[in-house]
């Protein structure tokens, strides 16, 4: 079989997800044996036009928050057979989208000060808001094992199924004492799993970086958090850490109580 | 005892049936499959996974047919197979059509869409042992003429098997001379006495409700109706729980059920 | 059945014996709770544990296991080599003994599951009586699973001098080499043991169900609006099934984590509460709604599997799921609802 041509691109993000691949040291050689990496900014000195590779699969990291991002995303889409939203920023908007909630103008002034007028930036959006996406690798950052599995599966022509279980399921398999029951706020019950419930395993509640689980019971979450004294803007702050651009207005109303 | 070890089988021919379905002929190296019409096998490709697929040919020594609709991981990967390739096979699994309850009677086969694939096994069986059955009719429904399965074989079923084959499509196309409409419209036109006829039904989930309503209006006894049901399956042996309909396991107690045995099982046909 | 006493001073010799002959699993403390784990250091064993996070089921049906490794080229496949030593499960409480018996029924029902049978082969199950209820959510009394000698090869009851040990007929053989550890019981020890048994009967006297009719009663609630109301408290998270000693549903998937030369066909615990559990191609889902899935699980626990295996119930009342569930959903609550007005208090 011909080797799969794989490209990695990065938009508005910390590039932590690309780093995740580099951190798979021991398995990197196997990956390179299975696929040909045609673009990877983090790990190459390639200086040419950034988005000009024809690829079987493009992994796109980062949310779309500039005009440049948007046009580059279209270029990547047109040159790639499959497009994968790579990590929370590309998948659901991620942390970049926090600014959407307080208004892009306010955020721009806060970040760039007097130079704000010369900087173009728009609301941070997930990749799927601009181009059709074939698959997503969730999380901030993506899960190493899941990434490797995804690449190998693609190399033999399969698509790794999206995990359907919320974080709680894997949390139980790991036999972590529930931090929610200890009084912490944990978004695990409404968040898509696949991260091996890593945050509760280290003692802190889930922040929802993998987006909403299928069929998440948002009303129940809101009720339980209200019993904890968390409501309104406190709750919004918690949810908006990763999901500011991910919820529909209806979902927001259910979860937070206002849009 | 069972393990998940598949037998390595040879794909001896690959024939496109429609744009979305392919027919494979497969041979096990060491044995005939030994199945009954209505049973299924677990087909697997390494690194991709397993999928339950009905056996689409009559029992015989010379391998068996699988008709596969390409809808997901395994079934899409099967699209890449060529004659001479290998696949993993486990099975046969499940309970097929109880032939002793069908032989000696009239047979009405009602197939919607891909439902014709498992029923082709029974149709071929009837062709081989034609004298053991009274009158036979096959009703075929499909979305469009392009989506009809095995349409080249209908002529032989009619002529060699003296089977009353009637076809209808939801949406016609230029050149289509057959019926247009739902499959239930065909049922009243088949001149078979309900009390001495066994109906065997397979199709998409929505179809059962309407077909059963029509059959009951025609006073067909419930123990003369057999339904082949589809569910998600992972083991084929009554363990993984995916195929459960209330307390029943489709992989073991089915996939072919006699209607009177599931009429009060709420999740079976709704 | 033979009665023996394992004196305190012989316990460590007995543990040494177990570790020589078996892979020893026992409860240890972890993360503020207790878990069953394979034992390297016998000092870490905590037979005073109330209950564990996951049931001992994981010893024979691991949360993730490789069923086969398949060569991508030749398609030849083989299961991983069997372990050289069988497992000894030490300190299994009565509910979990009943849980293991149910697991056996499900996995050994013909055609039995080869991987399970191989993990279970030659295993020694050592039960441990509960003198006190492990947690308020437990309802082993209602399910009549708080007495557990059945299903255990050895059944320990803590007494002042050590443990009273009931040895199942036929299990003596596997203990021949450890015979030195055990003593015949004295009359005083026998009286102490009988006292403890009376105490246990008192502690677990809060029966609240009529088990004989539970399966039928529960099925009669099928169309009740109760299930939709209950599901308002359900996240569809599957935590309840993950911690359940009697849930056996699994998924089978291929995994290429090790590269593209061999594929592992892997089995992992699944949950009928998850949205996609009964989803098939063509956007069809046979239990798309949360309440349908919740009801399915409760019916499995209270009716479907009970009827299949001729038991009063499949749930053993271990109390894990109500204790873990953030919506505080308990099978007991559902079972009692089905017998509303006819609940028996003993
Ligand atoms: C007894 C029996 C007989 C059958 N006979 C035939 C036959 O003769 N021919 C035939 O073509 N098919 C048959 N089927 C159906 C066939 O088994 C399925 O189409 C097949 O298993 C799909 O497997 P796959 O790996 O290709 O698809 P998968 O990758 O498993 O996906 C299949 C479909 O399910 C959906 N899906 C998968 N995972 C999820 C999820 N997590 N959440 C939501 N949706 C999901 C996908 O969208 C996709 O459409 C039969 C099924 C049964 C039970
Ligand atoms: S810690 Fe969070 S993820 Fe884990 S079980 Fe509790 S609520 Fe669920
Ligand atoms: S526990 Fe939550 S926040 Fe942490 S990695 Fe998993 S999904 Fe992300
Ligand atoms: S019953 Fe509780 S533990 Fe089970 S899926 Fe629902 S919320 Fe999760
Ligand atoms: S259903 Fe709940 S209480 Fe019953 S055995 Fe399972 S975990 Fe224990
Ligand atoms: S549920 Fe009952 S039998 Fe089980 S550990 Fe708790 S007290 Fe013991
Ligand atoms: S397919 Fe696993 S129980 Fe039926």
User: Sheet bearing the most strands of chain B, described?
Assistant: 7 strands, mixed
Number of strands of chain C: 13
**Structural category of chain C:** alpha+beta
Question: Strand order within the widest sheet of chain B?
Answer: 10-9-8-7-11-12-15
- Which chain pair shows the most residues in contact? B-C, 39 and 54 residues
Helical segment count of chain B: 7
CATH class placement of the largest domain in chain B: Alpha Beta
The residue-averaged pLDDT of chain B reads 94
**Which architecture name of the largest domain in chain B does CATH use?**
3-Layer(aba) Sandwich
**How many separate domains of chain C?**
2
- Report helical residue fraction of chain B: 10-25%
Anisotropy-based shape of chain C: globular
Indicate the low-confidence ranges of chain B by residue numbers.
none
Distance between the amino and carboxyl termini of chain C: 30 Å
The CATH topology of the largest domain in chain B corresponds to Rossmann fold
Q: Describe the biggest sheet of chain C? A: 7 strands, mixed
User: Shape of chain B, please?
Assistant: globular
Q: Cα-atom Rg of chain B, whole angstroms?
A: 18 Å
What share of the residues of chain B does DSSP label as strand, in percent? 25-35%
Ligand kinds = flavin-adenine dinucleotide, iron/sulfur cluster, FE2/S2 (inorganic) cluster
Average pLDDT taken over every residue of chain C: 94
What would a concise description of this structure say?
The complex is a heterotrimer of chains A (259), B (270) and C (346). Chain A is an alpha/beta fold. Helix content of chain A is 39%, strand content 12%.
Secondary structure layout plus pairing:
The complex is a heterotrimer of chains A (259), B (270) and C (346).
Chain A: E1 4-10, H1 16-22, H2 25-34, E2 35-40, E3 55-61, H3 67-79, E4 80-86, H4 88-92, H5 98-102, H6 104-112, E5 135-137, H7 144-155, H8 167-173, H9 198-201, H10 218-227, H11 232-243, H12 249-256
Parallel strand pairs in A: 1-2, 1-3, 3-4, 4-5
Chain B: E1 7-16, E2 21-27, E3 40-45, E4 49-54, E5 64-69, H1 73-78, E6 86-93, H2 99-102, E7 106-112, H3 116-128, E8 136-142, H4 154-161, E9 163-169, E10 179-180, E11 197-202, H5 205-217, E12 225-228, E13 244-245, E14 248-249, H6 250-253, E15 256-258, H7 259-262
Parallel strand pairs in B: 7-8, 7-11, 8-9, 9-10, 11-12
Antiparallel strand pairs in B: 1-2, 1-6, 2-5, 3-4, 3-6, 12-15, 13-14
Chain C: E1 2-7, H1 11-21, E2 23-30, E3 33-38, E4 64-71, E5 77-78, E6 87-92, H2 94-108, H3 114-120, E7 124-128, E8 154-159, E9 162-167, H4 187-203, H5 211-220, H6 226-231, H7 239-242, E10 250-255, E11 262-269, E12 279-280, E13 284-285, H8 290-308, H9 320-324, H10 331-338
Parallel strand pairs in C: 2-6, 6-7, 7-8
Antiparallel strand pairs in C: 1-9, 2-3, 4-5, 4-11, 8-9, 10-11, 12-13
Helix pairs in contact in C: 5-8, 5-10
The structure holds flavin-adenine dinucleotide, iron/sulfur cluster (5 copies) and FE2/S2 (inorganic) cluster.
């Amino acid at each position: 079989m011909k080797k799969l041509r794989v490209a990695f691109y990065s938009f508005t993000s910390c590039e932590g997800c690309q780093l995740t691949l580099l951190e798979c040291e021991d398995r990197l050689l196997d990956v390179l044996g299975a696929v040909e990496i045609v673009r990877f900014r983090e790990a190459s000195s390639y200086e040419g036009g950034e988005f000009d590779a024809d690829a079987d699969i493009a992994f796109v990291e980062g949310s779309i928050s500039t005009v440049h991002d948007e046009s580059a995303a279209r270029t990547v889409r047109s040159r790639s057979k499959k497009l994968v939203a790579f990590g929370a920023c590309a998948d659901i908007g991620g942390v970049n989208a926090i600014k959407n909630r307080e208004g892009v103008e306010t955020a721009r002034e806060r970040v760039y000060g007097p130079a704000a007028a010369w900087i173009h930036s728009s609301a941070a959006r997930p990749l799927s808001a601009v181009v059709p996406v074939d698959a997503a690798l969730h999380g901030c950052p993506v899960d190493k094992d899941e990434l490797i599995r995804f690449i190998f599966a693609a190399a033999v022509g399969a698509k790794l199924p999206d995990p359907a279980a919320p974080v709680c399921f894997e949390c139980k398999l790991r036999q972590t004492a529930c931090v929610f029951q200890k009084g912490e706020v944990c978004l695990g019950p409404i968040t898509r799993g696949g991260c091996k419930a890593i945050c509760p395993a280290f003692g802190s509640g889930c922040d929802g970086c993998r987006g909403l689980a299928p069929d998440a019971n948002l009303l129940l979450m809101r009720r339980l958090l209200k019993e904890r004294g968390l409501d309104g803007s406190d709750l919004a702050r918690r949810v908006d850490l990763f999901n500011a651009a991910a919820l529909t207005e209806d979902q927001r109303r259910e979860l937070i109580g206002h849009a | 005892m069972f393990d998940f070890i598949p037998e390595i089988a040879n794909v001896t021919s690959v024939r496109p049936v429609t744009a979305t379905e392919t027919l494979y002929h497969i041979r096990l190296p060491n044995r005939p499959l030994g199945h009954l019409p209505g049973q299924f096998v677990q087909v697997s490709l390494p690194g991709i996974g397993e999928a339950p697929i009905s056996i689409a040919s009559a029992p015989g020594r010379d391998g068996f047919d699988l008709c596969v609709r390409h809808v997901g991981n395994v079934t899409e990967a099967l699209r890449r197979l060529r004659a001479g390739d290998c696949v993993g096979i486990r099975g046969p699994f499940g309970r097929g059509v109880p032939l002793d309850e069908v032989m000696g009677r009239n047979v009405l086969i009602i197939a919607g869409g891909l439902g014709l694939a498992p029923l082709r096994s029974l149709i071929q069986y009837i062709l081989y042992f034609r004298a053991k059955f009274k009158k036979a009719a096959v009703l075929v429904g499909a979305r469009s003429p392009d989506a009809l399965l095995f349409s080249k074989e209908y002529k032989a079923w009619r002529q060699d098997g003296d089977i009353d084959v009637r076809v209808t499509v939801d949406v016609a196309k230029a050149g289509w001379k057959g019926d247009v409409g739902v499959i239930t419209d065909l049922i009243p036109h088949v001149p078979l006495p309900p009390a001495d006829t066994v109906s065997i039904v397979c199709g998409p989930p929505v179809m059962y409700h309407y077909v059963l309503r029509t059959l009951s209006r025609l006073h067909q006894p419930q123990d003369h109706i057999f339904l082949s049901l589809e569910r998600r399956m992972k083991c084929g042996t009554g363990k993984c729980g995916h195929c459960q309909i209330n307390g029943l396991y489709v992989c073991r107690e089915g996939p072919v059920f006699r209607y009177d045995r599931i009429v009060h099982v709420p999740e079976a046909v709704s | 059945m033979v009665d023996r006493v394992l004196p305190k001073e012989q316990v460590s010799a007995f543990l040494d014996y177990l570790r020589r002959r078996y892979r020893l699993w026992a409860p240890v403390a972890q993360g503020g709770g207790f878990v069953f784990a394979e034992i390297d250091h016998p000092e870490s064993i905590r037979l005073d544990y109330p209950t564990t996070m996951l049931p001992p089921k994981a010893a024979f049906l691991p949360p993730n296991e490789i069923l086969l490794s398949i060569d991508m080229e030749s398609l030849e496949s083989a299961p991983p080599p069997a372990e050289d030593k069988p497992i000894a499960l030490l300190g299994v409480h009565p509910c979990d003994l009943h849980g293991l018996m149910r697991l056996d029924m499900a996995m050994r029902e013909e055609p039995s599951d080869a991987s399970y049978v191989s993990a279970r082969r030659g295993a020694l199950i050592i039960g441990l009586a509960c003198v006190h209820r492990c947690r308020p959510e437990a309802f082993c009394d209602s399910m009549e699973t708080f007495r557990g000698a059945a299903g255990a090869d050895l059944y320990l009851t803590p007494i002042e001098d050590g443990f009273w040990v009931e040895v199942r007929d036929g299990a003596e053989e596997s203990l021949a080499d450890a015979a030195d550890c055990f003593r015949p019981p004295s009359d005083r020890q026998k009286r102490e043991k009988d006292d403890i048994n009376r105490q246990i009967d008192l502690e677990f006297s809060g029966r609240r169900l009529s088990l004989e009719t539970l399966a039928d009663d529960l099925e009669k609630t099928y169309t009740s609006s109760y299930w939709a109301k209950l599901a308002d408290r359900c996240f569809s998270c599957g935590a309840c099934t993950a911690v359940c000693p009697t849930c056996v549903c699994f998924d089978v998937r291929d995994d290429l984590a090790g590269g593209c030369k061999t594929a592992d066909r892997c089995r992992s615990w699944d949950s009928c509460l998850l949205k996609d559990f009964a989803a098939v191609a063509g956007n069809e889902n046979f239990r798309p709604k949360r309440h349908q899935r919740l009801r399915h699980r409760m019916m499995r626990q209270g009716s479907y599997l009970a009827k299949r295996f001729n038991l009063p119930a499949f749930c053993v009342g271990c109390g894990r799921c109500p204790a873990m569930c953030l919506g505080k959903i308990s099978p007991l609550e559902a079972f009692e609802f089905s017998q509303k007005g006819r609940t028996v208090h003993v």
